[in-house]
Amino acid sequence: MRWMWIDRVVELQPGRRLVAVKNVSLAEEHLHDHFEAEPAKGLSAAPVMPASLIIEGMAQTAGILVGHAEGFREKVILAKIARAELNFDVAPGSTIRYTAEIERMDPVGASTQGRIDVFDHARPDDGYVPMGTIDLLFSHLDNNLGQAGRSGEAFPEHNFVFGEGFKTLLRTSGVAIPGE
């Protein structure tokens, strides 16, 4: 994974629940395109975190939870976004809190329920405010397609899903990595 859309794991109940946070900063270049100023139309810049990246942050949070439950032996990939409801935009200076819970898990994959809350540092007295829900389905790639499964595609033996980026995130969050 080249881009991480979470900064730290703050809580882990193995096989049950994972909470992660993402600090949204104006230093993130993608914010300048969402939405840039249009002086000719009288519009000033209104940078917001793109909804697709918020969904990806939840996918990374829930994917780590699902992968950790099996000691990262499975190649866990996002199979489906079952539901995504985001109620407002997230601006720089906010912290997104992702809470993922495993609803069901078996050898084929897992389903997770996710909640997103936002802390606006400009309004600290409000605390974390509910922002939306994202429910996801994951597939255990090798169990569904095998090494040269139905697609005829052979997947690498090593777990390319949970690479060094995720391991660094877990280590810096104080989460033990199974097998290390």
Description:
Strand 5 (109-120) and strand 6 form a beta hairpin. The chain is α+β, with helices and mostly antiparallel strands. A 6-stranded antiparallel β-sheet has the order 1-2-4-5-6-3. It is 18% helix and 34% strand. The radius of gyration is 18 Å and the shape is globular. The protein contains 3 helices and 6 strands.
Tell the overall outline.
Answer: globular
Average pLDDT figure: 89
Strand order of the largest sheet: 1-2-4-5-6-3
Share of helix, binned: 10-25%
Secondary structure: number of strands: 6
| Separate helix tally | 3
What distance separates the N and C termini?
20 Å
Query: What gyration radius follows from the Cα positions, in whole Å?
Result: 18 Å
- Major β-sheet annotation: 6 strands, antiparallel
Contiguous uncertain segments of 5+ residues:
none
Strand content: 25-35%
Order of helices and strands: EEHEEEEHH
Structural class: alpha+beta
Quick summary:
The protein has 180 residues and is of the alpha+beta class. The chain has helices spanning 51-69, 141-145, 164-172, and strands at 8-13, 17-23, 76-86, 94-106, 109-120, 128-140. It has a six-stranded antiparallel β-sheet.
